[in-house]
Amino acid sequence: MQGSFKDFAETCERVKATSSKIEKVAILAEYLRKLADPDLRIAVTFLTGRAFPKGDPRDPNVGYSTIASIILEITGADELQLYETYKKYGDLGETIFHMLSKRAQAQLLMEPLTLQRVYRAFDKIASISGAKAATMRSTILRGLLLSATPLEAKYIVKVLTSELRIGAIEGLIEEAIASAFGEPLERVRNASLAINDLGEVAVLAKQKQLHNVKVTPLKPAGFMLAETAQTPEEVIEYFKKPVLADFKYDGARAQIHKKSSTIRIFSRRLEEVSAFFPEIVEAVKKISGTLILDGEILPMRDGKPLPFQVLQRRLHRKKITRRLLEEIPLHLFLYDVLYYGDSPVVDKPLAERRQILEQLSLPDNVHLSEMHEVKDVASLRTLFEKSKAEGFEGLVVKDPGSPYILGRRGKHWLKLKKELDTLDVVIVGAEYGHGKRAGILSDYIFAVRDDEGRFRVIGKAYSGLTDEEMLELSERLKSMVIKDLGMRVLVRPEIVIEVAFDGIQKSDRHDSGFALRFPRIKRLRPDKGPDEIDTLKRVEGIYRRQMLYETS
DNA sequence: CGCCCGGCTTC
DNA sequence: ATCGGAA
DNA sequence: TTCCGATGAAGCCGGGCG
Questions:
Q1: Which A residues 467-526 have CB within 7 Å of strand D?
Q2: Alpha-carbon span A348 to A151, nearest angstrom
Q3: What parts of chain A have a pLDDT lower than 50?
Q4: Protein residues with beta carbon less than 7 Å from any atom of strand B
Q5: Which end of chain A is flanked by fewer CB atoms within 10 Å, N or C?
Q6: d(C-alpha A538, C-alpha A426), whole Å
Q7: Model confidence pLDDT, tens digit, residues A209-255
């Protein structure tokens, strides 16, 4: 008996219906236990909100607009109906469910969908390229959706849009696998972090083969991540012992694997990105031994780092010309090692791993990160200033005794970034949110004043307010609408907010000519009126000051 | 052929 | 990347 | 503490459109 897609969808519904994590895990475990190996692999992959495993080069390449047109075709609804339904539920899966439920069902006589049939359809959709690719993808997807019940269609769409929204993505799925097959959670986690394919891990767990899984050269392992700290005082207070402070580099995180002359570089999302960095691949070939290294790739000229946008021109390039290689020279800064010689070194303390790095002999464009032992707030502050003055991003402060914890953010590493600046700005527009923010104006478009007192848009922000504040602000804005543009509204410029950011970039996205990096709402400013907000002049000033820092 | 947009990844 | 919410 | 969900700005690619 093959796993039915209906069971999968119904299980998701039950998981979504409870907010208790324990109950979610129990429902999932009971479901997984019943599945045969091939179905188990597929179901677990789908449960992680993916059509295919992490790092798999296949990609269905269908998104919101493709699915929206298919919904219109198969339901015969008009755009207004679709738009109203979407606005109400904020989720394409829910939208197709409600729109299909409204019409008489014609698929009662069809064979029920299986997990494998859905998976094969996804595979087929992903394999299409070239002329008319979009049309052909739509045709296959339409066929699939036509043979699905409304509930099945909902989950087909949810998997394709990676928006399952059942309150379980990875952690709880791991717990469910552990519970289903009687394995310790720790072992499931470690296996998942070592090979990064939960479908495979589930099958290995079922076959009692999990203990054989460990960090292996040429297979991507989960990166260790850092928590954010606000001040040097907080950092010193937290560790209460001498720490190792690394410079923080504003580049692309890279995990570099070397086994004889084979080099593989994996990105933060564990995509294989070796082809984008030929000069780094060549350089790493010159280092001896079998290795897994952790570091950052960034563009530099005359010993100074170049802005992040420059690096972006080297990312995801199909063709890398000689000219591009000369224009944007890349360097690799190493700060950790996960595998050395013939075994993993992730369990050794950081201080020992650093010693391994220090005895490597490195080619010209590969460097060790700048790292210093720090014992007090004053020297931490000095080092932070040094990092910024040299054009770097700040510091990552680490516990010298800590192991390399695969794939987890944790308080063994604390990052201190460039101090933020803030702007007082006025809200001139807003957008309706998605998912749990459906029907709420949750994303705010804001502006500064120019010389003539006109409002110039400089960005959008959504985070920083509590749910309660957001709901209240949403209601107020709804009463201030000047113009309704569907998912977006323009409002009378009256409400002032303080917005924090990490940098200012030149941009033609907004009419101020600037955009903010990592904008977030600091607080509402009910004490200020729109004539008291910050000016474009001040924005230009902050921009110039920052450029001075970056090029000095 | 050049421009725009959706999709995706980087931070 | 960032942030708040939930358990 | 840890996980989850909602979403910012920039640049590249593929494909559609004029």
A1: 505, 507, 509-510, 515-519
A2: 49
A3: none
A4: A 59-66, 250-253, 267-269, 271, 273, 308, 312, 315-316, 518
A5: N
A6: 15
A7: 998 888 889 888 999 999 999 999 999 999 999 999 999 999 999 99
pLDDT at position A105 is 58
What is the 8-class DSSP label of residue A458? E
Question: pTM of the full predicted structure?
Answer: 0.83
Matching residue, tokens 């707030």: A377
Q: What is the pLDDT of residue A402?
A: 94
CA distance A229 to A415: 6
A295-317 pLDDT, tens digit per residue, is 999 999 999 999 999 999 999 99
- Look up A87 and say whether it is catalytic: no
* CB proximity list for A263: less than 8 A, separation 6 or greater: A256, A257, A274, A281, A284, A285
| Spatial distance between the Cα atoms of A176 and A166, rounded to a whole number of angstroms | 14
Instruction: List chain D nucleotides near protein: any atom < 7 Å from a Cβ.
Output: 1-16
C-alpha pair distances (Å), A25 with each of A114, A175, A238, A472, A496? 23, 6, 34, 35, 44
In the set A206, A248, A258, A415, the catalytic residue is A248
The size of chain A, in residues, is 552
**Measured in angstroms, what separates residue A506's CA from nucleotide B5's C1'?**
22
CA of A169 to C1' of D6 (A): 15
Task: Round to a whole number and report the distance in Å from the CA of A168 to the C1' of D4.
Answer: 7
**What region, left, alpha or beta, does residue A473 occupy, with left being phi > 0 and alpha being psi -120 to 50 degrees?**
alpha
Backbone dihedral angles phi then psi of residue A324, each to the nearest 5 degrees = -65, -40
Q: Return positions of chain B under 7 A from a protein CB.
A: 5-11
Hey, is A170 helix, strand or coil?
A: coil
Contact A51, A126 (CB under 8 A): yes
Q: What is the DSSP code (8-state) at residue A212? A: G
Nucleotide nearest to A463 in CA–C1' terms: C3
Burial A442-479 (b: 16+ CB within 10 A, else e): bbbbbbbbeeeeebbbbbbbbebbeeeebeebbeebee
Cα gap A3→A12, rounded to integer Å: 14
- The pLDDT value recorded for residue A383 is 97
pLDDT value, residue A216: 87
Determine the pLDDT at residue A455.
97
Look at the block and give the residue holding tokens 């979504």.
Answer: A16
Residue A240 tokens read as 């209460």
| Local structure of A358: helix, strand or coil | helix
CA of A359 to C1' of C3 (A): 41
Tell me if residue A134 falls in helix, strand or coil: helix
Beta bridge partners of A188: none
